[in-house]
Write a structure and sequence with these properties.
DNA Cyclobutane Dipyrimidine Photolyase, subunit A, domain 3; 24 helices; Serine Threonine Protein Phosphatase 5, Tetratricopeptide repeat; five-stranded parallel sheet; binds flavin-adenine dinucleotide; single chain; mainly alpha
C-alpha cells in the first residue's frame, strides 16, 4: 500500500506526491491526520482546522462519484502510521515538504526516523519552489522559482486515481472526537470557506473583475477586502498550488491586457509568498529568536495590560481597534493593516514580537508560519536589513479610511462620530461625547499610550540599535542567507 499523506496541499491537481504514488500502479491510501499536538500548539485555532475540514470535505465530494475514499484520522501521525503498517504494510509514504512550525518540524524528523526503522521510503516533494536545506540565497533562487512557475502543471486523472484508491478501517481511537467534530462542522459565515471550488471562485473573480482596483486599494482596510485576491488561505492550505495561481494570472495577461500591470503586481506577491517561506526554511529558529541577534538589547517587555488591550482591540486608537475586531471576526486583514497592528504592539506598546506572534497566528485564517514570522520580525523592526517603519495609526486612518467606513463598521461605539473627529476621539468634548453617544472610558476607551511619546522613544531606540556594532556585524550573514527579492524580478 502506498500512502499519500496530505498536509498543506489539500487539492488533487498539480500534486506531485499523488502523481508519484499513481505511477506505481498499486493500491493508494489518501490520508489526512488531525494531530492533537499540532492542534494544541499555541499558534493554532479552530478556524484553521475548520478550513482544513472544509477542504477535505470538498476532496471527498470530488472522489465520491468514483467510489473512492479519503481517509481522515485523528491522532499523532506516528501512531496512525504504525497502525496502518501493522494492518497493511506501507510500501512508500509520499508527501510535500512542509516548512512548518517547531512542532511539525520535530514531528517530521520523528516520521523520517520511523520510516527508516521500518524500511519505508518517504518521498517528500518540494513545495512551490522552496528549496530544502538551502543555506545561501543568490539570484539563482529566483531563476529556479520562475522555472517552477512556468513548468507544466501535473495533471491527475481522478478516475484513474479513484481506481487505485483503497479504504481502511480505523478503530475508534483514531476517530475525531465529537466535540471537535461539532466545532469543525459549525460554519462561520464571516470567514472564507475552504476548498478547491471556492479557491477557483476567488481566483476567477479576481482575474476578471476585482484586479482592476488591486494596486490602488491594496493598503485600504475596506476596499482591499474586495480588490485583493483573497487567495491567501487557499494558497496556505494548498487548495491551489502557487503555480496554478501564477499560470492563471499569466493567461490573464493575454486575456485582459489592460490589466497587465495589476497581474504583474499580483505575481510579485506570489514570489514574495515563496521568498518568505524560503527564509523560514533556511532559518526556522526565527520562530523564537530575533533574525538579527543585535536587537536583543532592546529589552521590550510584556506589559499584560497593554497586551490585553491590544488583543481585545481596546487601545483607544480607532483604526487599531477596528482592525483587531475585524481580524478576530473574519480572520482576514490586508497587508498594511497587519503591519500597523504589529507596529503598534511592538513600537508604541513596546511589546516583544514573541508576545504577539501566536495570538496573531491564531487570528489569521491564512496563517503560514513561513510568512508570519519573517513578516512579524520585519514589522517589529528587528531584522537590521529592512527599513524601520513606525506607523502612526491616526495618519493611517486619515489616509486609508478617509470616510471612516471601516472604523464605523467594526466599532459600533463610533457609529455616530463624524470624520475627522472619528480619528481622534480623545479630542471629543464632553458635550460631543454625549451627542455622538461615544463616551470615553465608558463605551470607548481613552488611548492607553500617547503615540507621540512612544513613537519618539521607539524611533530613538530602534535607530540607535540599528547603528550598533552587534546589529551591523549580524547583517552580513543575514544578507547572505535571506536575500531580499530584487525589484524588477517579476
Ligand atoms: C505581520 C504579518 C503577518 C503575515 N502573515 C501571513 C500569513 O500567515 N499568511 C499569509 O499568506 N500572508 C501573511 N502576511 C502577508 C499578507 O498580509 C497576506 O498574504 C495578504 O494580506 C493576503 O491577502 P490576499 O490573499 O488578498 O493577498 P494578495 O495581495 O492578493 O496577494 C496574493 C498572494 O501573495 C501572497 N502575499 C501577498 N502579500 C504578501 C506579503 N507581504 N508577504 C508574503 N506573501 C504575500 C499571499 O499568498 C497572497 O495570497 C502577513 C503580513 C504581515 C505584515
Amino acid at each position: 500500500m502506498h500512502v499519500v499523506w496530505f498536509k498543506r496541499d489539500l487539492r488533487l491537481q498539480d500534486h506531485a506526491p499523488l502523481a508519484a504514488a499513481m505511477a506505481k500502479q498499486q493500491p493508494i491510501l489518501l490520508l489526512y491526520v488531525f494531530e492533537p499536538s499540532v492542534m494544541q500548539y499555541g499558534d493554532s485555532d479552530i478556524r484553521h482546522w475548520r478550513f482544513v475540514w472544509e477542504s477535505i470535505t470538498a476532496l471527498q465530494q470530488q472522489l465520491q462519484p468514483h467510489e473512492a475514499t479519503f481517509i481522515v484520522a485523528y491522532g499523532e501521525v506516528l501512531e496512525v502510521l504504525a497502525y496502518l503498517q501493522a494492518n497493511d504494510a506501507i510500501a512508500n509514504l509520499y508527501s510535500y515538504e512542509e516548512t512548518g512550525n517547531a512542532i511539525t518540524f520535530s514531528r517530521d524528523k520523528a516520521v523520517a526516523a520511523w520510516c527508516k526503522q521500518h524500511a519505508i521510503s518517504w518521498q517528500e516533494f518540494p513545495s512551490n519552489g522552496i528549496i530544502r536545506g538551502l543555506r545561501e540565497r543568490t539570484a539563482v533562487w529566483n531563476k529556479h522559482w520562475f522555472e517552477v512557475m512556468h513548468a507544466p502543471q501535473i495533471t491527475i486523472d481522478v478516475v484513474q486515481l479513484a481506481a487505485l484508491t483503497r479504504s481502511i478501517f480505523l478503530p475508534e481511537r483514531f476517530h475525531l472526537p465529537q466535540g471537535i467534530q461539532i466545532q469543525l462542522l459549525a460554519k462561520n459565515k464571516s470567514m472564507q470557506p475552504g476548498g478547491v471550488y471556492y479557491a477557483q471562485q476567488y481566483l476567477q473573480s479576481f482575474i476578471r473583475e476585482r484586479a482592476a482596483g488591486y494596486s490602488y486599494h491594496i493598503s485600504k482596510p475596506e476596499k482591499a477586502r474586495f480588490h485583493c485576491s483573497r487567495l491567501s488561505a487557499y494558497i496556505a492550505y494548498g487548495n491551489m498550488s502557487v503555480r496554478q495561481v501564477y499560470q492563471a494570472s499569466q493567461q490573464a495577461v493575454q486575456q485582459y491586457p489592460a490589466l497587465k500591470k495589476q497581474y504583474r503586481f499580483f505575481q510579485s506577491r506570489l514570489l514574495w509568498h515563496c521568498h518568505f517561506i524560503q527564509k523560514f526554511e533556511t532559518q526556522c529558529s526565527i520562530e523564537f529568536n530575533d533574525i538579527n541577534a543585535g536587537f536583543q538589547t532592546l529589552n521590550r517587555t510584556v506589559n499584560e495590560t497593554y497586551l490585553q488591550a491590544w488583543q481585545r482591540g481596546e487601545t483607544g486608537y480607532p483604526l487599531v481597534d477596528a482592525c483587531m475586531q475585524c481580524l478576530i471576526t473574519t480572520g482576514y486583514l490586508n497587508f498594511r493593516m497587519r503591519a500597523m497592528l504589529v507596529s503598534f504592539a511592538t513600537h508604541h506598546l513596546w511589546l516583544p514580537w514573541q508576545a504577539i506572534a501566536q495570538y496573531l497566528a491564531q487570528q489569521f485564517l491564512d496563517y503560514e508560519p513561513g510568512i508570519h514570522y519573517p513578516q512579524l520580525q520585519m514589522q517589529a523592526g528587528c531584522t537590521g536589513i529592512n527599513t524601520i517603519r513606525i506607523y502612526n495609526p491616526t495618519k493611517q486612518a486619515e489616509e486609508h479610511d478617509a470616510g471612516g467606513v471601516f472604523i464605523k463598521k467594526w466599532l459600533p461605539a463610533m457609529a455616530n462620530v463624524p470624520v475627522p473627529l472619528l480619528f481622534t476621539p480623545w479630542k471629543l468634548t464632553a458635550q460631543e461625547q454625549l451627542l455622538y453617544q461615544c463616551v470615553l472610558g465608558d463605551n470607548y476607551p481613552l488611548p492607553i499610550v500617547d503615540i507621540t511619546l512612544t513613537g519618539k522613544y521607539a524611533r530613538e531606540m530602534l535607530w540607535s540599535t540599528k547603528q550598533s556594532k552587534a546589529v551591523k556585524a549580524a547583517n552580513s550573514s543575514i544578507l547572505g542567507k535571506l536575500t531580499i527579492v530584487r525589484k524588477g524580478d517579476v
